[in-house]
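Design job #97: recover the sequence.
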């Protein structure tokens, strides 16, 4: 009788782990959406756009950050995962009202989600941040910024450039939301990405399957000078 009781207990624990475990995992590992431009407290634009701009830490409403968004499926449960870091640098050059060049550089080793386990896997086998410490987005075609309002509201501006992930560079386009806030220029967007195009293999670990596509996200505040 004791032997059968022990076997039965093991079976119950296994069933709980199989059917309840992934649901608990899904419930605690869903993430907030990636940050986007906020117009809260935005001021009318000051000065003109012409000149050299540098990425700054940003404000409480528009903190500079970058990372990724990807979908996971855990035994049929859809989970949205967002990884982000504040370790972002970059610059942009504007001639008149035309963006003639620019680059955003992200320190990949500090990208985090709501799961240390996932982050450790990302830093190791998935992205190998030791060998690939940065990811970059570089503007490759001029961008007309004359449509960006000066009244503290946003405009949608198409950006064409190159995205570099894990040592692989691919041409990309993204619809960016752009705001002129006082003396600052703020932009955000989600660059569509197929991970294998960049040598990144989405993991499939039993009950966890990561989608083959996602977005590389950015929210940057720039100041002149």
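Job complete. Output follows.
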């Amino acid at each position: 009788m004791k032997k059968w009781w022990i076997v039965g207990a093991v079976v119950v624990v296994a069933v709980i782990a199989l059917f309840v475990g992934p649901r608990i995992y899904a419930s605690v590992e869903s993430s907030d959406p990636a940050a986007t431009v906020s117009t809260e407290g935005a001021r009318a634009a000051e000065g003109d756009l012409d000149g050299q701009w540098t990425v700054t830490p940003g404000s409480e409403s528009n903190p500079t950050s970058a990372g990724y968004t990807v979908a996971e499926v855990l035994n049929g449960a859809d989970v949205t995962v967002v990884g982000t870091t504040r370790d972002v640098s970059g610059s942009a050059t504007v001639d008149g009202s035309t963006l003639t060049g620019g680059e955003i550089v992200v320190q990949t080793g500090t990208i985090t989600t709501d799961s240390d386990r996932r982050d450790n896997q990302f830093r190791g086998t998935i992205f190998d941040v030791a060998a690939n410490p940065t990811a970059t987005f570089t503007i490759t075609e001029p961008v007309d910024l004359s449509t960006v309002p000066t009244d503290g509201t946003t405009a949608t501006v198409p950006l064409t450039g190159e995205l570099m992930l894990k040592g692989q560079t691919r041409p990309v386009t993204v619809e960016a939301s752009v705001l002129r806030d006082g003396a600052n220029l703020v932009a955000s967007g989600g660059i569509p990405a197929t991970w294998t195009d960049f040598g990144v293999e989405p993991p499939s670990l039993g009950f966890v399957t990561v989608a083959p596509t996602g977005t590389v996200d950015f929210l940057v505040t720039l100041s002149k000078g």
